[in-house]
Amino acid sequence: MASHIVGYPRMGPKRELKFALESFWDGKSSAEDLKKVAADLRSSIWKQMADAGIKHIPSNTFSYYDQVLDTTAMLGAVPPRYNWNGGEIGFDIYFSMARGNASVPAMEMTKWFDTNYHFIVPELGPDVKFSYASHKAVDEYKEAKALGVDTVPVLIGPVSYLLLSKPAKGVEKTFPLLSLLGKILPIYKEVVSELKAAGASWIQFDEPTLVMDLDSHKLQTFTDAYAELESSLSGLNVLIETYFADVPSEAYKTLTALKGVSAYGFDLVRGANTLDLIKGGFPKGKYLFAGVVDGRNIWANDLAASFGTLDSLEGIVGKDKLVVSTSCSLLHTAVDLVNETKLDKEIKSWLAFAAQKVVEVNALAKALAGHKDEAFFSSNAAAQASRKSSPRVTNEAVQKAAALKGSDHRRATNVSTRLDAQQKNLNLPILPTTTIGSFPQTIELRRVRREYKAKKISEDEYVMAIKEEISKVVKLQEDLDIDVLVHGEPERNDMVEYFGEQLSGFAFTVNGWVQSYGSRCVKPPIIYGDVSRPKPMTVFWSSTAQSMTARPMKGMLTGPVTILNWSFVRNDQPRYETCYQIALAIKDEVEDLEKAGINVIQIDEAALREGLPLRKSEQAYYLEWAVHSFRITNCGVKDTTQIHTHMCYSNFNDIIHSIIDMDADVITIENSRSDEKLLSVFREGVKYGAGIGPGVYDIHSPRIPSTEEIADRINKMLAVLETNILWVNPDCGLKTRKYSEVKPALKNMVAAAKLLRTQLASAK
């Protein structure tokens, strides 16, 4: 019985790749050093899967930054601003595209479907000269082969690649990206013929866009693309892999009729409806790669249930044509449970990280082939049962409170009345300046937190060190003449983990890192039970910071939807139930901050858009409960308390009405890499009456923008937004930057705001 893994995490069990990348970027190590770390990681992954008995082991799912960027490099689609002169693309061009360099900005980064991973968006147009410029896929196949592992090379399929691209600057927004298909297929053919020559017998094309709402023209492009590739693919087994949702029936028809394709991969965890389509008809003689092991969560698989699903599929497709697989790449889960020595035993028995999921896939394949590991299956069943009955999972009081679906939870007055009351109280200038929350986390600061955690310094010493840091950050902001201050979050490791550690129902890992983008990893908490707030979480630090300044100090909270979307969430109750529970816990905190004299409270919903279902038909319901959860948190505050929220990397245009319905007083938005796409919403006449601060510079890049550049950006915003509602702020928190970058950038930002205040005053 065959088994398959769609893809595997690249960072390494202890984030080896992250440290190697950052060392290389800082000039502390050579390209050779970086390549060595990467090669060691790849070989250990291939060996691990081979040892586990996996038959179809993927290659080319490793990346130094991002798999879509790898495809851009393969196709030689380098934007002209990087001055690439042809030839094989090396680290210099590759990392400039990913991160920008001293003279030009990075390419845009955006969400990979509805995950927490970000990809680098290709910039295409009619004049792009495609050429085969990165032989990575072939090199990695050969590398594995030399180690004695025959892999399945994985490529992002040509149609999904184009559908995930955007028209480059200066290209008509309406440019039909799919019209470039004929220009990229010759390169795909070259890659395929090299893989064949190297001995590959299988090839995997990831075409995840097939789970989206696609019109007939787009579906026809899939038909055309694979018809064109058919002769090149002959003699190979071709797998088309889909994931993250079920495949709509029209797309299923298109997919299963593609020329030259021998196998189809489906996500049967998030795509339960696909099962009905398969039962309704599956092409004879083709392979079904059944994604029954969840690649996006950390819960141990319910082996008995998966076995039942596989058993029924076997009857439809035949024993020799069913392959057990993961629902998607394991990139989206943590790497290896073995490294979790501190995790509670009972909770640990409920979990499986990537390495364990590989073992689960193989155990299911063996069981189907009649070699069931009874001990493995029975310990799995025992863990499933203990999770269902554990008293740690259920808290009656929380269940009761969260049943409050009746109320609409809105503030008593409308936003314009509230803004007037707040302005009387806060007395801010026009174009008020603020930052998003975090300030740089220095090596010294991380050391203090680490030593406190390890009990090497006392609580008093810790509090003193953090107070000192806050007072430095407050003084710096006062010196820069920023209007609404933040305390800089020196006590926080992460915007979700910090709260999760103080809420009940959460568990934490030591090495449960998941790649977010490039070398940036996040360590999502695990929500295993009902959530509540035993005691205040941030009041001490916020009131301490407010006592150091006469200017308004923002309270800083992470919103319920973001905590939900950035955690590994329990899968034994609907997501919205868990979200309402978190909202009630944050509501307690908001009201305690207000009582402590904090007049401006920011509730970040950076990840609101992230949980948006991929299909239009499911989006309204999600947005309704997500926005409702946000309103629950602040429906009880006074008019004079100003509620801010912050949102990241998003296409807001399609959810702007939900954002307005959140009814925050001020919203700050990460938009500087999305090139003012955001502002087009307001140009199209959406009326927005609350305060708004679209980010005026990109904090994800080390570049320091000039005063003129920022002023120019603010002017663009003033063209579509009222002067009295516009705020001036960076586009995200500053914790990943250095002070040598932050000080001049903020100085220029404040100077730009003052320059425009002067111009506006004289224009009056």
UniProtKB/TrEMBL annotation:
Tell me the cofactor note: Binds 2 Zn(2+) ions per subunit.
One short Pfam name that applies is: Meth_synt_2
Asked whether the keyword Repressor is assigned, the reply is no
Positions the record marks as coiled coil are: none
GO MF terms, alphabetically ordered? 5-methyltetrahydropteroyltriglutamate-homocysteine S-methyltransferase activity; methionine synthase activity; zinc ion binding
Q: Which residues bind L-methionine?
A: 436-438, 489, 604
Where the record annotates domain Cobalamin-independent methionine synthase MetE C-terminal/archaeal, the positions are 431-754
Cobalamin-independent methionine synthase MetE N-terminal domain location is 3-315
**Cofactor field:** Zn(2+)
Pathway(s) of this molecule: Amino-acid biosynthesis; L-methionine biosynthesis via de novo pathway; L-methionine from L-homocysteine (MetE route): step 1/1
The residues that the entry says bind Zn(2+) are: 646, 648, 657, 661, 670, 732
Q: Which GO terms describe its biological process?
A: methylation
- Reading the lineage from the top rank, the first entry is Eukaryota
Binding positions for L-homocysteine? 436-438, 604
- Role: Catalyzes the transfer of a methyl group from 5-methyltetrahydrofolate to homocysteine resulting in methionine formation.
Return the similarity comment: Belongs to the vitamin-B12 independent methionine synthase family.
Please give the name of this protein.
5-methyltetrahydropteroyltriglutamate--homocysteine S-methyltransferase
Organism for this UniProt entry:
Carya illinoinensis
